[in-house]
Design a protein that fits this description.
Length: 423
């Protein structure tokens, strides 16, 4: 298993390009299942999760070609011939459940294995299933699979009121409702930029959607959708992660393609901590104003709040801050697995239930650490960049799921980082 070796090396300076969003791309790809015509995504990120979704769609009979080194995904589902999403692929990635809504909407039946994914909590899919049931679907859970059917072969519009915000369940319901007969209203819908991106793509395919970006989305079902070409929105989590690199190491880094509107709550917290953020023609420029940032408290929330996917990375920054910070995790119940690893590097962290109290130290120390999930792994790299000596992060396959060319991007701004290949 490969590992990443990081050596603390002082301030970082230069530019980092931001890729298309993994989480947007993973919900845009299943949209191909809704149409017989080609769907092409540009600005796609080159990641193992995208290859997993590619394999899943291909297993259903869709054609997916990665062009221009993977930056363009040309897809077509005219030859769809299998309606079972198999355990062997689905268990690798929770987002696989997003093929359920589109297959059911298009052909009236689908069988999808219950998913796996990062071990950051129970993460059930009950809200996805309830939303589709509100559109008339009949569900049967057997042998670890969801067997779903639409009576009469077509879903019908309905009112879906989510008990709390779920990004994935909103996406599955939105995808399915585009081809349902009649009007669907999604209440307490997620408002994430990835939802708006999905709605934009579906509209380009001929769907009738209003209210995306608010908590009520209304979809008027249509009989068929056409093909389209759609650019994937920038990855706000990759953006936030790399904004933290100059914040933790010092220096000035420009994030190409970055937009503040994707991360307003996060930007405000960084500014409170003493980091300067400037919007430029090319993206966002980030500079640490003082020798050491100030401690700030963070509570994770659905968009537009502080994203849970940046909590681990923010914790790495707070480990070196002046003062005591509390980080409250409200989305997932088991998302502090990076804390014991950061403690190995000299951090002072107390975890009580869903809250971590971090007392900043002047200097972290390099150590061998283990990545436990995608965002945790990159938080250890950030900590390693600021630490004295060498940090070796093992199990980096987690990182490959969500960060393209991490070594190349951080080396380009002066970080001492290399990937150690192992047989
Ligand atoms: C998506 C993102 C993930 C991010 C998360 C929250 C993708 C591929 N992944 O995950 O990176 O961390 O949003 O911003 O886009 N829940 C249920 N039942 C359900 C669905 C969810 O109880 O049927 C719970 C989850 O366990 C969690 C909360 O709802 O506690 C929010 O999860 P959700 O927004 O659905 O996250 P994902 O869509 O899985």
């Amino acid at each position: 298993m490969d590992s990443i070796l990081v050596t603390g090396n002082g301030p970082l300076n230069g530019e980092i390009p931001i890729a298309g969003a993994k989480n947007a791309c993973l919900t845009l790809m299943p949209a191909t299942l809704l149409s017989d015509e080609p769907l092409t995504l540009t600005n796609a990120p080159r990641l193992s999760d995208i290859r997993t979704m590619t394999a899943l769609l291909q297993s259903l009979g869709a054609e997916v070609s990665a062009l221009q080194g993977g930056k363009v995904l040309a897809m077509s589902s005219h030859g769809l011939n299998n309606h079972t999403a198999d355990y062997d692929i689905v268990r690798k990635m929770r987002a696989s459940i997003l093929v359920l809504g589109p297959m059911l909407a298009r052909d009236g039946h689908a069988v999808v294995s219950l998913p796996g994914g990062c071990a950051i909590g129970a993460r059930p899919v009950d809200l996805h299933l309830k939303a589709l049931e509100a559109m008339g679907a009949e569900m049967d859970l057997r042998d670890g699979y969801v067997h779903a059917k639409a009576p009469g072969g077509r879903l019908r519009g309905g009112v879906v009121e989510f008990p709390f915000v779920s990004v994935g369940a909103t996406e599955n319901a939105l995808l399915a409702a585009t081809l349902a007969k009649g009007t669907t209203v999604l209440k307490r819908a997620a408002r994430e930029p990835e939802i708006i991106d999905l709605a934009n793509c579906l509209r380009a395919m001929g769907a009738q959607i209003e209210g995306d970006g608010t908590d009520t989305i209304t979809i008027q079902g249509v009989d068929r959708l056409n093909g389209a070409t759609h650019p994937v929105v920038s990855d706000r989590i990759e953006l936030g992660t790399y904004m933290l690199a100059p914040a933790i190491c010092g220096g000035e880094v420009e994030l190409l393609g970055g937009k503040r509107s994707l991360l307003e709550a996060f930007c405000q917290k960084l500014e409170e901590a003493g980091v300067e953020i400037t919007e430029t023609d090319k993206g966002l420029k980030v500079r640490r104003k003082m020798d050491r940032v100030r401690a700030v408290d963070v509570v994770t929330e659905p968009f537009p709040g502080f994203p849970t996917d940046l909590q681990a990375q923010m914790m790495a920054l707070m480990c070196t801050a002046d003062g005591v910070a509390t980080l409250e995790e409200k989305i997932f119940e088991n998302r502090f697995m990076h804390a014991p690893e950061l403690i190995r590097m000299g951090a002072q962290i107390d975890v009580h239930g869903g809250t971590a109290t971090v007392t900043g130290v002047k200097q972290l120390k390099g150590a061998p650490v283990m990545a436990t999930d995608l965002r945790a792994s990159v938080s250890l790299i950030l900590a390693g960049l600021a630490a004295e000596g060498e940090t070796r992060v093992s199990r980096v396959y987690h990182l490959d799921r969500g960060y393209e060319h991490v070594v190349r991007k951080l080396s380009a701004v002066g970080a001492k980082i290399e990937r150690i290949k192992e047989e």
